[in-house]
Design a protein that fits this description.
Keywords: Membrane, Transmembrane, Transmembrane helix. The chain is α/β, with parallel strands linked by helices and 278 residues long. Helix content is 53%, strand content 8%. It has a four-stranded mixed sheet, sandwiched between helices. A hairpin with a 5-residue loop joins strand 1 and strand 2. The longest helix is centred in the middle third of the chain and has 28 residues. The protein starts with a strand and ends with a helix.
Length: 278
């Protein structure tokens, strides 16, 4: 596994884990169920019309609005007992790859820690609410033909929050056991030098570093086809956030980005929201 830090703006960074060989012993029942659901979803996407096609269209619209931070943490595999034992025994450290001209090398692990920890409380809270909401949706099962979509949506969101929590804990464990190390990437550095503006805030305002034009270039150059969807979604969310005057975005001092004055801040989301309200 390799961890990539891809700055999206001067204050936001996309975390993406490129996984190597997947051990079948680490692929539990939940993962198999998720794979089965993904295959069914792909089949529904091929349909030209009907209620299944409409479900897919609405579903994809909803998926696009799931925070990119959550998708990033979900890309990190959970820390199973087998994986924990293997990583401790092998002591093979995980690379944290980033563009050094955009992210100073001494800030990389701090940003990684921020991304792994800052949303943990939020995911736990929403996981609980999803579980509470599941029984409430049971009456929808009485609707003929169409499955209980609200129930399945809450199941998916609960699983998604659980995986984000697990991914964040895995990263925290790697950091605590000194099993990660920074790897400045010349390839990423060249990509940002060619396609991104300087990671600076001369007017003290957040600036985007990537646009949709760079998505395919990054994906092909890094030889990570799956990154294309993640990067496209993340850039879209950042662009929408900056267009919204009511969305102030992350504070410069606590942001998991290149302009952060205190990289590695792990202030809980609830405290950050309180500061914004004040």
């Amino acid at each position: 596994m390799r961890l990539f830090l891809l700055p999206l703006s001067t204050r936001r960074t996309l975390l993406y884990a490129k996984r190597g060989h997947i051990n079948k012993h680490d692929h539990g029942y939940v993962d198999r169920a998720a794979d089965f659901a993904a295959k069914k979803w792909a089949e529904w996407e091929k349909m030209e019309s009907g209620w299944k096609r409409k479900v897919v269209d609405y579903g994809n619209h909803a998926f696009r609005r799931i925070p990119y931070e959550e998708w990033g943490l979900k890309s990190v595999p959970p820390l199973t007992s087998r994986r924990r034992a293997e990583e401790l025994e092998d002591r093979k450290r995980v690379e944290v790859v980033f563009p050094w001209s955009v992210i100073p090398p001494n800030n990389a692990l701090g940003i990684l820690k921020t991304l792994a920890t800052e949303r943990q409380a939020l995911h736990r809270k929403r996981l609980i609410w999803c579980c509470i909401g599941m029984p409430i949706t049971i009456p929808f099962a009485l609707v003929p033909v169409i499955p209980n979509l609200p129930f399945f949506y809450l199941v998916y969101r609960a699983w998604s929050h659980y995986r984000a929590i697990a991914g964040g804990k895995h990263i925290q464990w790697l950091i605590e056991n000194e099993l990660v190390y920074s790897v400045p990437s010349r390839t990423l550095d060249d990509l940002y030098a060619l396609h991104a503006p300087p990671a600076e805030e001369p007017d003290n305002k957040e600036r985007t570093l990537l646009t949709q034009k760079e998505v395919q270039t990054f994906s092909k150059t890094l030889d990570m086809p799956a990154l294309e969807v993640e990067l496209e979604r993340a850039i879209w969310q950042v662009e929408q956030s900056l267009k919204d005057p009511s969305d102030k975005g992350p504070n410069k001092e606590e942001a998991a980005g290149t302009a952060s004055e205190k990289p590695g801040s792990t202030t809980p989301v609830e405290e950050k929201n309180k500061k914004k309200d004040e």
